[in-house]
Amino acid sequence: MLKSLASTAVLSLAVLDSAMAQDLPRSPSEVPQTFERHFNTGDLDALAKLYGEGSVFVPTPGVSLTQSAEIRNALTQFMASKVPIKLTVRQVYQAGDTAQIVFDWVMQGKAQDGRPVDMAGTGADVVSWRADGAWVYAIDNPFGVAQSAR
User: Fold this and answer.
1) What percent of the chain clears pLDDT 90, i.e. is strictly above it?
2) Residue 58 contacts residue 143 (beta carbons within 8 Å)
């Protein structure tokens, strides 16, 4: 009886983990689409699930955040204007359970306070495959090809 209950609990946890991962990307090329969808709907919790343990987020060139609270705070600041983001994938390179995604992004419009928003860049992200089948950010670097000052 006890063994049966333990097996049921393990199976329940596996089903729960699978359900939680269902909304996560199942291929590297789905990561930017998933980011765009959650960003534009203002779903910070779903967006934060794209970052795993040890993920790095680069909110500005030369700055890297590794703590989940810092990453959530930076994402909140980007989302605050309520201006939608558009991501266009240029290239995806995959080697086993790691992939690099090169993409262009644009945020243009008026913020809620009326100020104009005109931001764009070309990012270079690294994503990793997890045992539950989801792909999440190892490094989210939206300013991946930014020029440094000379």
Assistant:
1) 77
2) yes
Q: What is the largest CA-CA distance in the chain?
A: 71
Which H helix or E strand runs over 105?
Answer: strand 98-110
Tokens of 116: 């104009």
* Residue 125 contacts residue 41 (beta carbons within 8 Å): no
pTM of the model: 0.81
Domain formed by 25-140, architecture: Roll (3.10)
According to DSSP, the residues that pair with 135 across neighbouring strands are 129
CB atoms under 10 Å from CB of 31, counted, come to: 26
23-38: pLDDT as tens digits = 899 999 999 999 999 9
Residues 83, 110 contacting (CB under 8 angstroms): yes
Q: How many CB atoms lie within 10 A of CB 119?
A: 13
Alpha-carbon dihedral sign for residues 89, 91, 95, 99: negative
Q: What is the pLDDT of residues 45-83, one digit of tens each?
A: 999 999 988 999 999 998 999 999 999 999 999 999 999
The pair of structure tokens assigned to 78 is 């980007």
